[in-house]
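To illustrate the input format used throughout this study, we show a single complete record. The first block contains the structure-token representation of the backbone; no residue identities are included at this stage. The design step must infer an amino acid for every position from geometry alone.
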């Protein structure tokens, strides 16, 4: 008789099952865009919307499968390889095809569109290969707070940004060569950010004070409601917020590199140390600002 699987043994395949499901959603998103070729505008918009939703589901599954593997003590080398391949499909191949089919296919710049789609997909694969190569290397503790270059899920959101803008702000402009060149330039920019050495902050490193837990949950509910009603705008806002955060991430990493005494501290303690050092370097700044504000003083020239 074959030994029966224990319940926990059956759960050990759950992370890999989530990864396989993510691949299915990513490829199904491509299939939806293929179905929309040469169809009426309403049908195309519905298929593009569902395709972006499928990519969002794939991203959620990608975020959960690793955590599930660690919780179930089911991490394995095979699971890591499947996860990396899934990222290449879901955040590299699928967005490249979706943008090409939705923006460039059948236009005068179709060949240019295919080139930038290939560039984006290759850059995602290179970024994943670099991440895997550095995964087990020796590096300072503070490096764990940052990605090197734009992570693959963020790159996918950035890549489909032009499609979200097209669906949110439709018009004849999107069929013009100017629009297609703008999208091509955007895709090249996203591709370069993906393989760049620019630090990007990891979301889980942001500390949430206890007193802010309830307001943040309320904001999360508002965000989900907005994503349901105004999904395209939410995608564009996410892209804008991520781009805005980049200079702050660069500045934060540069400060940490110059202060090895805080490398072993938690992110919250590092931020407290940074504020303390800033106050020590400029002890009179707050006093001067308060005094000037009370007196109504202004800088020369009205500045």
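Output of the design step:
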């Amino acid at each position: 008789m074959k030994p029966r699987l224990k319940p926990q043994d059956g759960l050990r395949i759950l992370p890999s099952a989530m990864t396989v499901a993510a691949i299915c959603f990513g490829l199904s998103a491509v299939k939806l865009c293929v179905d929309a070729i040469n169809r009426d505008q309403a049908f195309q918009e519905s298929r593009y919307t569902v395709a972006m939703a499928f990519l969002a589901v794939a991203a959620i599954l990608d975020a959960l499968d690793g955590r599930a593997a660690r919780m179930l003590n089911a991490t394995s080398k095979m699971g890591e390889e499947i996860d990396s391949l899934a990222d290449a499909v879901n955040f590299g191949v699928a967005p490249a095809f979706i943008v090409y089919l939705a923006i460039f296919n059948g236009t005068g710049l179709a060949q240019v569109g295919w080139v930038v789609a290939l560039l984006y997909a290759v850059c995602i694969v290179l970024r994943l290969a670099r991440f895997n190569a550095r995964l087990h290397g020796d590096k300072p503790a503070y490096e764990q707070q940052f990605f090197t270059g734009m992570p693959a899920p963020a790159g996918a959101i950035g890549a489909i940004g032009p499609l979200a803008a097209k669906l949110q702000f439709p018009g004849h402009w999107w069929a013009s060569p100017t629009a297609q060149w703008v999208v091509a330039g955007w895709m090249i920019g996203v591709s370069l950010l993906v393989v760049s050495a620019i630090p990007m902050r990891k979301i889980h490193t942001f500390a949430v004070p206890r007193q802010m837990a309830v307001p943040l949950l309320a904001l999360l509910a508002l965000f989900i409601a907005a994503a349901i009603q105004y999904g395209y705008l939410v995608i564009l806002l996410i892209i804008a917020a991520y781009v805005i955060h980049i200079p702050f991430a660069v500045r934060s990493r540069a400060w940490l590199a110059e202060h090895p005494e805080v490398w072993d501290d938690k992110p919250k303690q590092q931020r407290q140390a940074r504020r303390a050092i800033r106050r020590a370097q400029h002890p009179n700044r707050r006093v001067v600002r308060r005094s000037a504000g009370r007196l109504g003083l202004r800088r020369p020239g009205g500045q």
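Structural context for interpreting the output: The chain has a mean pLDDT of 84. The chain is about 70% helix and 0% strand.
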